[in-house]
Specification:
CATH architecture of the largest domain: 3-Layer(aba) Sandwich
CATH topology of the largest domain: Rossmann fold
Order of helices and strands: EHEHEHEHEEHEEHEEEHEEHEHHEHHHEE
Distance between the termini: 46 Å
Helix content: 25-40%
Structural class: alpha/beta
Number of helices: 13
Radius of gyration: 21 Å
Largest sheet: 7 strands, parallel
CATH class of the largest domain: Alpha Beta
């Protein structure tokens, strides 16, 4: 088995790479955006050090090649393409996750880039699986149940990221009769539920930081709105498991909290207790957008104004009305013991690490996060490992 992995230097991709390399017999080819293969190898080695704390012995089983989703044929020459002839599996996780990128730029990376990966897959005679990492937010602004077979239900989208990923998933589905395709749809991905480690301080982290600093005079949210959050370890475990399951070919799987999802009210309660901060009153999103937010920006100082603007992108996710059906994922993953943990079980771990890392201002690798001497306090769950906390003055 030879796996071609895109996004190996990204948040989820690093975790997938770590799991794939646990098998001493595994071989991985990482397609990495770089100037040349030597540059790609350096980036890969940096990733291995972050993941494992060392390059060896893992470097012997993973090869980096320079590629670019925005270039014809991924920027690969015929010799490089021929070298991929033995690839038996592809996990395509590389994407632009920016909410602020222009739609055409998002499409070039997320849609056209995915098309180039699909075209490459068509040239691989030994290919057994093409797993595409989509997002639960292809549901856009849909209200009510959104099933794993649902895609185009007439929804609108909050940002170019959602729309481009929707279009990319639709494209992948169009190849399903020609390729052994599996689609996975994670929701909001946060840090590891045991160590709290994350390489991506966005979506949930920005509003939490704002709450901790009392930056929200009011919050545009519905108290009962779902906050569907999953830990990166669950997502990576699920991707690797589904990628290996023969019966997962042709299926779409929601990697969401679903029945275990929190609500805005519960998230606020967790934040207020942890940060000992004021609970901001909730207002209707439309009222906030047209009245409260402009007023807050006018009254705020320069630093606070900049911070409020930075969180604007994520506020629509506090008033969602969609519920993700993950029945197919549960049927496949529950027997393997791969189950999403409810956010309250690991919320403190997320905050501990965020404080330790200064909300992303201080670099701390995955391997370093696992080695940090943390003080053991109360159990995380009745039967789970103890919760570990760190003291921080941040």
């Amino acid at each position: 088995m030879t796996l071609l992995l895109t996004g190996a230097t990204g948040f989820v991709g690093m975790e997938v790479l770590a799991r794939e390399l646990r098998d001493p017999a595994s071989r991985v080819i990482a397609l990495i955006r770089a100037d040349d293969d030597a540059h790609a190898a350096r980036r890969l080695h940096e990733t291995l050090r972050s993941v494992f704390g060392t390059v060896e012995p893992y470097a012997q089983r993973v090869t980096a090649i320079a590629g670019d989703l925005e270039q014809p044929a991924l920027g690969l020459d015929e010799a490089a393409l021929a070298a991929l002839g033995d690839v038996t599996q592809i996990i395509h996780g590389a994407a632009s996750v920016s909410f602020d990128l222009a739609l055409e730029r998002s499409r070039e990376i997320n849609v056209a880039g995915t098309l180039r990966m699909l075209e490459l897959a068509m040239r691989m005679p030994r290919l057994r699986r093409f797993t595409y990492v989509s997002t639960a937010y292809v549901a856009g602004e849909h209200r009510g149940r959104f099933g794993e077979d649902d895609l185009d239900v007439g929804q609108r989208f909050r940002n170019p990221y959602e729309q481009s990923k929707f279009e990319a998933e639709r494209l992948v589905r169009s190849f399903a009769e020609r390729l052994p395709v599996t689609i996975v749809r994670p929701s909001i991905i946060v840090g590891d539920r045991f160590s709290g480690w994350t390489a991506s301080f966005n979506v949930l982290y920005w509003p939490l930081r704002a709450l901790s600093q009392g930056s929200y005079p009011v919050l545009p949210a519905r108290r009962r709105a779902p906050v569907d959050v999953v830990s990166v370890d669950y997502v990576a475990d699920a991707i690797c498991a589904l990628h290996a399951l023969p019966q997962a070919a042709g299926g779409t799987f929601a990697l969401t909290a679903s029945a275990a999802a929190s609500s805005i009210g519960e998230l606020l309660g967790l934040a207020v207790e942890r940060f000992a901060c004021r609970r901001p009153p909730l207002v209707a999103p439309a009222l906030y957008r047209h009245v409260a937010h402009p007023l807050a920006l006018r009254c705020a100082g320069t630093r606070r104004r900049r911070f409020l603007r930075a969180t604007e992108t994520y506020l629509p996710y506090f008033a969602m009305r969609v519920r993700y059906d993950d029945a197919r994922a549960r049927a496949a993953l529950d027997p393997l013991g791969i189950v999403p943990a409810p956010l309250p079980e690991f919320f403190d771990q997320l905050v501990d690490y965020a404080l330790l890392a200064g909300w992303g201002r201080r670099g701390l690798s995955r391997a370093e996060a696992l080695d940090v001497p943390l003080r053991v306090t109360r159990p995380r769950t009745q039967n789970g490992p103890p919760r570990r906390t760190v003291r921080s003055t941040t």
